[in-house]
What does this fold into?
Amino acid sequence: MVEGNVIKGKAIAESIVSSLLNRFDALMQELGRPVVLLGIESGINPDSRAYIRSQQSLAARLGIEYRHRQVGPYQKDLEDAVQMAVRDPSVDGIILHTPFPEGVDVFNALRLLPQEKDVEGVSPGNVFGMFFHQEGTIFPPTARAVLRILDELGVNIKGARVVIVGEGAVVGRPLAIMFLQRGATVSVCHLPTSERGDLLRYVSQAEILVSAVGKAGLIKGEWIKEGTVVVDVGINFVGNRMVGDVEFDTAKDKAKLITPVPGGVGPVTTAILMENLYLLVKERLNVRGR
Ligand code: NAP
It folds into this structure.
């Protein structure tokens, strides 16, 4: 799972996938058909391609039927597609691929998503469940992936000084709540923190640092305290090269453990997405049967 101090996201993802293979097999026998995951894309967004491809190939490995629905870049098209998928009894889980085109209101579309089909933890029911720590809540996969990586490597979370950079709705913000739930002391930095010139001060105090911003080189390696565990969620392109938010080469010399980009959080996120789908369908079968 670790080479030197570099965390191997692919190995962690692989261990999640191996445990899911049998579980999905049994679930589909109980269901009497393949589990169906539907991804809805509004407009065409080249940035989503790699993520969609990795979901498709993992779904195929697990025997999940992955459907992709491309709709026009308009609110009504998206909402109609969501409503149709919600009504379709053959669809077990729904993903709304982001980012949305200009003028499409993501929140109005998410409001239509019932908790029973929400694999990304973004529906009103799951957000409520996360906020009030309800049993059976599905959490956003990237935020869960960060915690899974730390748990796999035995990193202590309770009482740890955690600094999260970025408070986006699908990574930083849910992660802050999840870390609090696990007993960490959490600081959340965002753009105003940088604008005030305070980012270095917060980053340098972290025992666990998570960056989820989307700005290459935002976090300087020299800011990081010796022995920090660094989880870089950011995805950025410098030319054709994919990099994170953290200056990897310099940060690596200071960090106790560090995730690379690519090959860190990304593969674990896709595996956790499928685990969410498993949990969702299993819960539905337990409560309502087929
Ligand atoms: P987002 O919703 O746009 O949030 C970005 C956050 O970064 C905001 O809170 C913003 O602050 C903050 N920010 C922007 N500039 C900053 C600066 N100079 N200093 C400090 N904070 C700054 O983005 P997201 O959806 O959370 O995604 C964040 C990154 O994670 C992206 O690179 C995305 O591609 C990546 N990602 C990776 C995975 C994966 O599986 N590896 C999954 C999802 C996302 P304000 O709140 O003040 O605007």
